[in-house]
Amino acid sequence: MVRKFFVGGNFKMNPVTREQKKALVKVLNEADIDTNVEVVIAPPAIYLLSLQDILRKEIQVAAQNCYFKSSGAFTGEISPAQLVDAGIPYVILGHSERRTLFHETSALVADKTRAAIDAGLRVILCVGETLEEREAGRTKAVVEAQLQPVVAALAAADWDKVVVAYEPVWAIGTGKVASAAQAQEAHADIRAFLAAAVSPAVAESTRIIYGGSVTAANSKELGGQKDVDGFLVGGASLKPEFVNIINTKRA
Q1: Is 246 exposed, middle or buried, given 0-12, 13-18 or 19+ CB atoms closer than 10 A?
Q2: DSSP 8-class letter at 42
Q3: CB of 170 within 8 A of CB of 214?
Q4: Which residues are catalytic?
Q5: For residue 26, which phi and psi values (nearest 5 degrees)?
Q6: 68-77, pLDDT tens digit by residue?
Q7: How far apart are CA 58 and CA 52, in angstroms?
Q8: What is the per-residue pLDDT for 45?
Q9: What pLDDT is stored for residue 89 in this prediction?
Q10: DSSP 8-state class, residue 124
């Protein structure tokens, strides 16, 4: 099976003005991008609707988070039902910044994933180890422990709504990047885990993308690995080089 290359841009809590948001969109709208790539960008929640209105239709929009309830007394949260009603197709869940700064557990991430899919969203599901865990040789165990509650929460048929993003925490925003071999090894381990825990068919069809200081300079080598199906880009998604990353697979 040929898995469609996927490039996501996680803007995080950027930009800080509406004018900067418009400037980012202008670059993407005017760019020559590979139409064989699925492109999704995730702006802050306050910009989701206004950005979607001015963004070229070939590029989709994602929320950076959502809750697992459809409505209620949950101050500050956004529900999956609200995102679907707003026409937002994707949500990022389980990002390491949510896990570390806001203490989200893998069980909570699984509940959010289940709720998002039930509402009709597609999910970019983030997993990844810290530097301490990698140095202890625990990368595979840590990632599998993060995936296991999601496996338990989903049916096999749900996995066509999920893109798994492997993001080693030590490489996010640090300038450090996993080598192509390290990325390939981690992605192959995730695919093997999905084959055993869900099914070989799900493992083969699920896109596993890499995140962690992806740039135009390293994207071709990373993107050339057998089990790397794209990227979740952080800081570089706010720069013109994001277009080059989108076009990684172009000859």
Answers
A1: buried
A2: E
A3: no
A4: 95, 167
A5: -60, -40
A6: 999 999 999 9
A7: 11
A8: 98
A9: 98
A10: E
